[in-house]
Design goal:
384 residues, mainly alpha, 4 strands, single chain, 15 helices, 4-stranded mixed β-sheet, abc type-2 transporter like fold
Length: 384
């Protein structure tokens, strides 16, 4: 290709990109939706979803009413638990748990203190509403830790062992260190996860919608018989929508996530946006494929949802790959969001560079070329 032909080719692509941007900015409803996704939606996800145990409502059935039972009840206190009072019967406990009024019930048996003083083992029942698996598991774990600590302190007090003597005994200490998010702030993870999900949705739907609108208006045939090639028709749609998405990611990151949730960005912002641009190109190829087999926007939306759900569920954001069946782990290799999640969290939280994320970058690049070329091939087939 000589210099004149190259200039002409790029001139057509730029002109078509400007055309796509003008069409987008003439649709105020779509602009409002995009603005909502990158601002309010991410804020609500980061601030409204909490995966930690805070002030979990607990009621107690105290069948002993002794000093030891009162001490145990007092151990279930804030910030993890909030005691909501005492009930008398197990049927009341089941009713409250079934209605979702409380998360758990602590059931202390009769002769609780007497058996402890006699050195006999005592079983304390802790009924948990596990309809929310995360909170139920956390409540059970905290309850086991509290009761174990209470039992240890009670035995030490009964044997007359002082704190100084306890400190001098040989014990194994379990000290754990949380990396990258030491305070385990859910808002950091949830806001970034929602940003990546929003980017996925828009990078699929916006190019697909732009192509389908051409069909509905009857202009796609005019473009097909013009001097423009299939690549010159489709690539500007990806470029224009990609520019809008990258702008939305920048607004979301620097006006919502960093100032509101105080996320410390450890890695290169430029590398993150380069990875995001590659991801937008990859998922846009899926959107173009959807557009080639859709006759209207309604069909495009339904097909988009059909393909979007496997991409999200196989991304590894909610279920670690190690916890999935082997078949699902193979499926994750064709989910572009799996690679994008891996690279985004590594860059933003861990400060990773290309030397660490190169394998995910290579996998995403391969998927991007395959998806985009397939979309262009399908578009050419329409008018062959």
């Amino acid at each position: 290709m000589n210099r004149h032909a190259l200039v002409l080719w790029f001139g057509r692509v730029i002109a078509m990109t400007v055309k796509e941007l003008k069409q987008l900015f003439r649709d105020p409803a779509l602009l409002v939706i995009i603005a909502y996704f990158f601002t309010a939606d991410v804020y609500l996800a980061g601030s409204g979803i909490n995966l930690s145990l805070n002030n979990a409502p607990v009621m107690v059935i105290d069948r002993d009413h002794s000093a030891a039972s009162r001490d145990l009840i007092h151990s279930f206190r804030q910030p993890y638990f909030t005691m909501r009072g005492e009930i008398n019967r197990s049927t009341q406990a089941s009713e409250r748990l079934n209605k979702g009024e409380i998360l758990a019930v602590l059931d202390i048996p009769e002769n609780f203190q007497r058996h402890l003083l006699q050195g006999q083992p005592v079983a304390v029942q802790f009924q948990v509403d596990s309809s929310n698996t995360v909170l139920g598991t956390l409540a059970s774990a905290y309850a086991m830790e509290i009761t174990a600590g209470f039992g240890q302190d009670f035995v030490a007090q009964r044997l007359g062992i002082t704190d100084g003597q306890m400190a001098s005994l040989p014990i194994i200490q379990n000290r754990h260190r949380v990396l990258y998010n030491p305070n385990r702030i859910d808002g950091w993870f949830m806001s970034i996860s929602e940003l990546l999900t929003v980017t996925t949705i828009l990078s699929m739907m916006l190019p697909a919608a732009a192509a389908v609108r051409e069909k509905e208006r009857g202009t796609i045939e005019q473009l097909a018989v013009s001097p423009l090639s299939a690549l010159q028709i489709l690539l500007p749609k990806v470029i224009a929508m990609g520019m809008v998405i990258l702008l939305g990611v920048a607004v979301c990151l620097f006006l919502i996530i960093v100032p509101i949730f105080h996320l410390p960005i450890k890695g290169s912002v430029g590398l993150f946006f380069a990875v995001t641009a590659l991801y937008v190109f990859t998922t846009s190829g899926i959107g173009l494929f959807i557009a080639t087999i859709s006759r209207n926007l309604a069909q495009m939306a339904m097909l988009g949802i059909l393909l979007l759900m496997p991409i999200l569920l196989l991304s590894g954001a909610w279920t670690p790959p190690e916890a999935m069946p082997q078949v699902m782990r193979w499926g994750m290799t064709v989910s572009p969001l799996y690679y994008y999640n891996d690279m985004s969290y590594a860059i933003l939280f861990k400060g990773a560079g290309i030397n660490i994320i190169w394998d995910s970058l290579l996998g995403l690049s391969a998927l991007g070329l395959a998806f985009f070329n397939f979309g262009v091939w399908r578009f050419r087939r329409q008018f062959a």
